[in-house]
Amino acid sequence: MGPRRSHGGWLWMFMFQLGAADCTHHCLSSSSDTQPFIPLTQTPTWQVESDGGCLKPLYNFAKLFIEAVQPNPFPEDIFTALKTEQLDIPQLVRYEAGYLVCMLLAGLYLLLMPVAGGVLAWRHFHSKKVEVSDTQSSTLSSLYHQDIGVAACLVLVTILLLTGVILAFTVNSRVSENMHLGLYHVETSARIMEDSLTSIPQKIEVIMEQFSIPKAEISKEIDDADDIIGATIISFFNTDVDKALTDLSASIKDAIGTIENLQLYQTTRTDLQANHTILQNGIQGLQSRVESLGKCPTCDFPDPSNLTTVANYYLIPSVDDKLNDMPPASSLAGLVEQGNLTFCAIPQKCSEQVAPTIAALMSELNETQEELLNTSHRFPSLESLTEAVSDCKTTVRRFAEPVDYYDFVRWAVSLTLCMVMLVIVVLMVAALSLGLPVLFYPTIYSTYPDARLEHTAIGLFRAAVVVTFMFSWLFILLVCVMLFFGGNAHTLGCQSWTNGQIFGFLDQQNYLFSSLNNTSQSFNTSQSLNTSQSPNIKETHQIQPSTSAIYHGCKRGQSLFQSMHMEQLFDLEDFLNASKYLDGFNETAQNLSVSLDGLKLLPDNGRQALLSFKQCGIDSINYDELLLLLSTPVVKTDLGVFADELDKKAELPANAGIKEDLKKEAETTRHLSTIVKQQQTNAAKMSQSVSALKIISTVYKANIDKTLESLTQTEVALYNQVPYIVGNVSHCTMEKGAQSLLRYLDWVRHAILYKVLDCRWLAVSLDNVYTAVCLNVIDPLNAFWLCLGWCCAFLVPGVIFSIYTARRLKPEPTFISKDTFILPEKKTENMKCHTEKAASNNYMTLEEIHESCMVSEYIKSK
C-alpha cells in the first residue's frame, strides 16, 4: 500500500504542475490583449504660410535698415519700468535714438523742401533778367553732353520713382489684405493655445476615469477567483473522486448483497429444516403403513425400505451471528450520493471562505482608484499660463476691430498719398516724353509752331515740382510715422522673437508659471500634515521654466512635462509605479486560502459500516459443504413414482380389500412428493444465495480495503493540493490584474507625455503668430514706408533734374548787353533765328541754334 500511495502523490503533483503551467500560459497570453482605452484627440494645427514671395528681398532690406537704426537689444528694463510706472525717459530716448535721428532728418527734409520750393518760386516770378558772362557763352557748346547726363539721370530717377510707387501700392495692398487675416490667425492661435491648456486637466481627468477599464477586468478576475478555484478543484479531482465513489459503490453493493443473501439464507434454512422434519416424519409413517399392508401373502407391493431422506438439512449452519454483525442497510444507503454531493459542494465552500478576501481585494482596488485620482489632482497646474493666454486672446479680440479700422484708415491715407506720388511720376513721365525729343532733336516737332510742346513739357515739369513741394511733407510725415511704429514693432516683437531675446523677458514674468509653484507649496503643506501618504510631489525650491526651452522643446517634439521640467515638482515615475499599487493587492491576496478540513467523502458512520461489514466473517462459512449438501437429493426414491405404483396395486383384484388404503397412501405419498419439490426449490434458492455469498466472500475485503484507501488518498490529496491550487489561482489572478494595471499605467504614461502634454500645437501656434504678424503684416508695413521713403529720397534729385530740364527747354533769350540778357518779348524774331539756322543745317542742335542766335543779336546790338 505504501508504494501505491507514493505513486498517487507524484501523480497529483504532476497534475498540479500541469494545471499551473496552463494557468501561467493563460496569464501570459492574456497580457497581449489590447484594452480599449478612449483615444485622446490632439489639438488640430496647421501652418500659416508666409506670402513674402518675390518681395522678400525688399522685406530683408527694410529689416537691415531697421536693425541699423535700432541695434539695441530687447529693452527688458524699459518694459519693467512701464509696468511699475517708473519709466526713465532718458533711457527710453537713448533706446529710440536711431528714430530720433530719422526724425531730425525728416525735419530737415520738411524744412528744406518748402524753403527750396519758395526760393524757386521767387526766382520764377521775379528773375526777368539774367546776366551772362563771357565764360558762359564760351561753354555753350559743352551743354549738349551735360543735357544728355541730366536727361539720363532724370529718366533713371523717374524709373526708380515709378518702381517705388508700384512697390508701395503692392505692399500697401498686401498689408491691408493680411491685416484682417492676421488678426484672425492671431486670435485663432490664442484660442488654440487656450483650449489646449484648458483641456489638460480635463484630459487628465478622462485618463483617470479610464481606470474603470482595468478595474472592471481586475474585478472580474477577483470575482471569478472563487469559481475558478472550485472549478479547478473539481476538474483536478473529478476522475479520482469518481473512481473512489465507484469503489465505494461496489463495496456497498457487496454489503447490501451480503445482507440480502444472508437473510434469504436464513429464511430458506428455516424452511428447509421445518419441511425436512415434516418430510422425514411423513416418510417414516408411510413406510410403516406400507409395510403393514404388505404382510398380505397374496399382495405384491413395492419395497418401502427405500423411502428414506438423503439430504440432512439440519446440517446447514445458522448465520444469525453473521447477520447480527452486518451493518444495517440504512447506514449504507445513499453513501455514494452523499459523497458526490460533498465533492460538488466544494466550490460553494470555497466561495464562502474566499469571500472576505475578495471583498478586501475589491476594497484595495477602490483605494487604488481613489489614490490615483487624488494624486492626479496634484499634477502641476498651468492655470496661470492659461489665464495669461486667455488675457492675450481677450485683448486681441477687444482690439481686433479698432486695429482693423485704423488699418483701413492707414490704407486709405497711404493709398491717397501713393496716388499723389503716382500723379507726380506720371507728370514727370509725360514731361520727359514731350521734352526730351525737343531737347535733343529740335526739328522733330517742326510742325508745332510757337514752341507749344516745349511749353507743355515745361508746364508738366513745373506741375510735378509744385505737387512735390506741396505734398512732400505728407510723404515724409507718413514715412516717419510708419517707420517708428513698424520699426519698433519689428524690433520689439519680431526681431526679439527671432534672436530669442524676448524669451529672457518672458522668463522674468513670474505670473506665467506661478500656479506651478503654488501647486507644489500647497501639496508640501498637506504632505507635512500626513507623512504616511506616498509623495508624488518633490519638495524642491520654486522653479521658473525657461520659455525658450519650452518653445524649442515643443518644436523638437518634447512634451510640456519635459520642456518645463515638471519632474522637479511631480514624480511621474512614482505616480505610475505599479509596485506601490500592487503591494496592497499582493499582501491581501496572500490571505486568499481555502481549508477543506472536515471534508469527508465517506462519513464516519459509513466508514464504520464498511468496517463492520469487513468483520462480519462471511468468509468463514464452508460454502463447498453447503453447496454439496444442497445439491444432495432430498429422498432416495421418487415419491411420485412410488405413488403411481400404489395406485396400480390398488387396481389389482387381489388387493380389492385394501384398495382404499392403498389409494389413501398414494395420496399421502403425493403430498410428500410436493414437500420434496418444495425442498428442492428451497435448496436451489439457497444454493444461489450461498454461491453469491461465496463470490462476495472472496472479494469483499479487498474491495473494502480498496475503497477505504482510495477515499483516504483522495481526501488527503484534497487537503494537501488545494492550498497549492488556491495559491496558483491566486497568483494567476493577481498576474492578470497586474498585467491589466501595467497596461493601464503604461497607457497613462504615454497619454500624459505624448497626448495630454504634447505641445507641438504651442510651437506651431507661436510660429503662426510670428508668421501672421511679422512676416505677413509688419514686414509688408516696413516695406511700405521703405518704398515711400525711397520715393521721397528720389523726389529730391527728381525735382532738381526736372527744374534743370525745364530751364533747358525754355525758348532762346535775346542779348541786351555784354553781361546781361533779357528774355524776348516777341517770339517772332527768335523763331526767325531758329528758322534761318534750321534752314541752313537741319542737323544743328538746340544749343548751336541758341548760341548762334545769341551771337547774332549781340553783333546787332553792337
List keywords for this structure.
rod-shaped; three-stranded antiparallel β-sheet; 3 domains; 28 helices; Helix Hairpins; mainly alpha; single chain; 862 residues; disordered N terminus
Can you summarize this structure?
By secondary structure, the chain is mainly alpha-helical.
Give a written overview of the molecule:
The protein has three domains: 53-128 and 147-209 and 409-499 and 765-810, no CATH class; 230-351 and 597-756, Helix Hairpins, CATH 1.10.287; 813-862, no CATH class. Strand 2 and strand 3 form a beta hairpin. It has a three-stranded antiparallel beta sheet with strand order 1-3-2. With 862 residues, it is an all-alpha fold. It is built from 28 helices and three strands. It is rod-shaped and about 215 Å long.
- How helix-rich are the residues, as a percent range? over 70%
The CATH topology annotation of the largest domain reads as Helix Hairpins
Question: So, CATH architecture of the largest domain?
Answer: Orthogonal Bundle
What's the number of domains?
Answer: 3
**Main sheet characteristics:** 3 strands, antiparallel
Quickly count the helices. Answer: 28
Proportion of residues in extended strands: under 5%
- Global morphology: rod-shaped
User: How far apart are the first and last residues' alpha carbons, in Å?
Assistant: 170 Å
Number of strands: 3
Low-confidence parts, pLDDT < 50 over ≥5 residues? 1-33, 128-141, 520-535, 812-847
CATH class of the largest domain: Mainly Alpha
Strand order of the largest sheet: 1-3-2
The helix/strand class is mainly alpha
**For the residues shown, what is the average pLDDT?**
77
Radius of gyration: 66 Å
